[in-house]
Structures are given as structure tokens and as C-alpha cells.
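Just curious. Invent one:
>
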Amino acid sequence: MISEFSDIVTIPYGIPEYSVKNGINYILNVSHEIELSIFGKHNVTNINGARLICNQLGISNEEFYDSVNSFEGTANRLELVNKNGNKWLFKDFAPCTF
């Protein structure tokens, strides 16, 4: 089926180099760390995939990283509702289909 679409390009991606400090994720870019508003290895991996798609659209890594730190994730998915000391309350809704 994919052979019908000769203009489709697959680009493998994985998790970029990143660190977590005081509960905050940072992607390690060439010259500096980019603080993220979202957390979790899966989100860091998805950001890397989004970066590669943006590169295909002509958006440089620098432009992408300048914008990505303001991305707060999708509403109702690991959305921080309240924080009190070392206790954090999140709203997380994902439909379940079987």
C-alpha cells in the first residue's frame, strides 16, 4: 500500500539526549539546554519527531527549539491542576477503545 505513494518519506526518530533536574525536562541542544514545559520520556521522544517534521518543512532546529519550550502539552493529558510541596495533582484523560 505504501508503494502507491512514492513521495512518502519515512524518517526514524528516537529519544534525544535530555536531562531531568528538579522534575523539569531539558533537551540537550548543541550549545545549551532547552527547558520543556512538559515531562516524560514519551513526550521528549514526540518532541524529537515533531522537530524532524518541522525540519522537512524548512523550520530550523534553532527556530523549533525557540518555540518548543512554550508548548504545554494537550489539554486534559497530564495537565497539572495543583502543586503543594512535594504533592502534585494531575488531570489525565485518555479515551479507552476496545
User: Anything to note?
Assistant: The chain has one domain: 2-71.
